[in-house]
Amino acid sequence: MWLADRLANLVTGLGGPRDKSAGNLHVHVPRARAELDAAYRDNWLARKIVDVVPFDMLREWRDWQAPPAEVAAIEAAETALGLREVLLRALRLARLHGGAAILIGDASPDPAAPLRPESLGQGGLRYLHVLGRHAIQAGEIERDPLSPWFGEPASYGLAGGQPVHPSRILRLVGAPVPEEAGGDAFGDSVLQALLEAVDHATAAAAHIAAMLPEAKQDVISVPGLSQALSTDEGTRRLTERFGYAARMKSMFGMLLLEGDGRSPEGERYQQKQLDFSGLPEVARLFLQTAAGAADIPVTRLLGQSPAGLNATGDADLRNYYDHIAARQAVELTPALARLDALLVRHALGRPAPEVWYAWRPLLQTSERDKAEIGRLRAETAATLAREALCPREVLAAGVEGWLVNADLFPGIEAAYRKGR
Question: What is the pTM of this model?
Fold first, then answer.
């Protein structure tokens, strides 16, 4: 086996001095903030990669599970604090610069003092401010495993030197980098690993666009051209002659030349055209590579329908929305846990561990699909009632909850309340 491998290396050059990939070496080159900002402002693909994911994560927002009056109070508190807009801006900054923070403000005049949830009453939150990574400085990572801030910065400082207690900071990370790999309290910009693919995609489109003016070129072979151009008078006469020829071609669609086009004394006219076949596939390949690197399907990133027979792109979008839902559960929900506990106290004036929320689904169900699901559930309920497999009171309560939450019949919830 060793001999076969060695012979293969000798024949193909793989692993030897002739192997072109033998000298490949990955070297980390951090992207400067100015370069990231310029890419975000001037490159449409980089901007969409940064903006699309936060927008989709917060597009449908969340559905609080509590009595209607408490849900209304919590949602009113979210609106008053501008939580959704603040979080969207912070997530975009985190993806662009590698990290961001939200400063939680209460009535305390000293941001260096701890923000204790038990001391917060109804209406206790005053503001939520977004701080970019460069507007806040993270202190040393807490190493004490008994500390509630273990693994997080033990302190923060604003750009002006004002210390801030970590209980007042909601930290958001862009592309996480393990500490063992050189990471710090924040992370990398998502463009750090994607900018090369983005540049290739935009450069491919730019090169194709630059070829369009050269798609058709008129070529005229003129006997004695060098001799005619050797004098000012010859250059002037030649320029005037072909200027007139170009104007005649534009007016009458014809080009008049001297001679038969074959003899040495006659001029010869040719038209050269570039072949663009295959170039669209090359540009599409680079765009697909950039979309794959960003973990965003082409149908969402470019807003185009997939090509091919019976191709709808539903599977790609469904996988992408499942990915977004997983990020909401794994990344966003834990990051918001401290703020949500304060938000409930701010809205209700008390802790409410029984109150919870769920992220609304991103994949919207069509009216036809809702009707079909409703028909199947109605048939199931009718079968359970007919076969007496479920107490009627329990089944009626379940059907009522389904009809109220299914959004099939507007006003049905008010009608149920009125009937009682």
Answer: 0.76
Question: Exposed/middle/buried for 220, CB within 10 Å: 0-12, 13-18, 19+?
Answer: middle
Inter-residue contact 313 to 297 (CB < 8 Å): yes
Contact present, 86 and 102 (Cβ < 8 Å)? yes
The two three-digit tokens of residue 320, written as one number: 């992408």
CA atoms within 13 A on the CB side of 8: 7
Max CA distance (Å), the chain: 108
* Residue-by-residue pLDDT tens, the chain, 420 positions: 444 444 455 555 656 666 666 667 778 888 999 999 999 999 999 999 999 999 999 999 999 999 889 999 999 999 999 999 999 999 999 999 999 999 999 988 889 999 988 889 999 999 999 999 999 998 888 888 888 888 888 889 998 789 999 999 999 999 988 877 777 889 899 999 999 999 989 888 887 777 777 667 777 777 777 888 888 888 888 888 888 777 777 665 666 666 655 555 566 666 666 677 777 888 888 888 999 889 999 888 887 665 544 445 577 888 899 999 999 999 999 999 999 999 999 999 999 999 999 999 888 777 777 778 888 888 888 888 888 888 888 888 888 888 777 767 777 777 877 766
Structure tokens that stand for 354 in this block: 């029984």
Phi, psi torsion values for 142, nearest 5 degrees: -70, 125
Q: Classify each residue of 82-108 as buried b or exposed e, where b means 16 or more C-beta atoms within 10 Å of its C-beta.
A: ebeebbbbbbbbbbbbbbbbbbbbbeb
Distance CA 66, CA 383 (A): 31
Please provide the size of the chain in residues. 420
